[in-house]
Amino acid sequence: MLSDTHCHFSRMEERGEDIRALLASLEESNFRFVLDIGTRPGDLSSRMDLTSSSGVNGGRVFPPFLHFSCGLWPDADIIASRQESLSALESDIRYMINLAGERAGADRTVLAALGECGLDRFWNGEKAAERIRMAEAGNNVLPQTDDGPGTTDTDGEEELFASQLLMASRFGLPVIIHSRDAFEPTFSVVKDCGYFRGVIHCFSYGVEEARHFLDLGFYISFPGNITFPKKNTDRERMGKLLRFVPLDMMLLETDAPYLAPAPERGTVNTPLKIKYTYSVASDYLGISVEKLAEIVYMNSVSAFSLQKPN
Questions:
Q1: What angle do CA 111, 116, 118 make, to 5 degrees?
Q2: What is the pLDDT along the chain (310 residues), one digit of tens a residue?
């Protein structure tokens, strides 16, 4: 019944999750749509190996609800080698589109996407420069995460993002946009490229920023952090944001293994835990979980459908 429009199975496996067992549980739970997100050049094949079983003729067999994207996260080493990375990405995209078409057949919508890609000014830019200064002074306090250490090359970061927007346009793919502490430069690059089809994933801004993206035609996707607020003022602010986004432009995601929703905060997130996000979102919106699940599924099909390039 439920859908998860953004997760990373390879990162879940790195944290000890049994992916085959997890996929079986998702199928038993009647998940309708799950999107496994690409972040690095050439990572599609390993992600498909992880999430498939062997067919009678030796081919890969995937759960019916599972779909893929391919993209380049604004990592320092990818930005530094962006031309080679973009070339590898294009190869993956061509393979992904062919695979998606074969799985869809003649009577189903072909679902695929480019992403995640975008800008991250928590890791890159001035904050990266500050980390470098601290490291040179012998005070390296870099947290242990999958991201970082970041780069000061924000021009390269924006060039990598713009190149992927143009590639998405060329292939008729929706784009999954990562934007952290970077609303203004993200919006500027998107406007300059003129490609307005896709999703702002893991939305972390406010109503006015949502208005700008919605006016361009982007879907807004909310992760488990909508379950975090405890104070009434914070809950009111979150409820106002969710109610501002039109229901036909709303998606829900886990970003698993990150951002596990309450009451599972601090654990490894998986798509199974998105039930808490649906529950809280339905309360904010004043509709049933069942109705919200149908809305998100229909929006997923619309948002991630492959279209013929202009």
A1: 135
A2: 999 999 999 999 999 999 999 999 999 999 999 999 999 999 999 999 999 998 777 789 999 999 999 999 999 999 999 999 999 999 999 999 999 999 998 778 999 999 999 999 999 998 887 877 776 676 665 555 677 679 999 999 999 999 999 999 999 999 999 999 999 999 999 999 999 999 999 999 999 999 999 999 999 999 999 999 999 999 999 999 999 999 999 999 999 999 999 999 999 999 999 999 999 999 999 999 999 999 999 999 999 999 876 5
Answer for the pair 18, 8: CB distance below 8 angstroms, yes or no.
Answer: no
In this structure, which amino acid lies at residue 248?
D
Query: Residue 176: beta bridge partners?
Result: 115, 199
Three-state helix/strand/coil letters over 110-145: CECEEEEEEEECCCCCHHHHHHHHHHHCCCCCCCCC
- Nearest 5°: the CA angle 293, 295, 297 is 70
DSSP the chain: --EEEEE-HHHHHHTT--HHHHHHHHHHTT--EEEEPP-STT-HHHHHHHH-EE-TTS-EE--TTEEEEE-----HHHHHTHHHHHHHHHHHHHHHHHHHHHHH-SSS--B-EEEEEEEETTTSTHHHHHHHHHHHTT------SSS-S--S-HHHHHHHHHHHHHHHHHHT--EEEEEES-HHHHHHHHHHHT---EEE-S--S-HHHHHHHHHHT-EEEE-GGGG---SHHHHHHHHHHHHHS-GGGEEE---BTS-PPTTSTTSPP-GGGHHHHHHHHHHHHTS-HHHHHHHHHHHHHHHTB-----
CA atoms of 256 and 259, how far apart (whole Å): 7
Structure tokens of 254? Answer: 């886990």
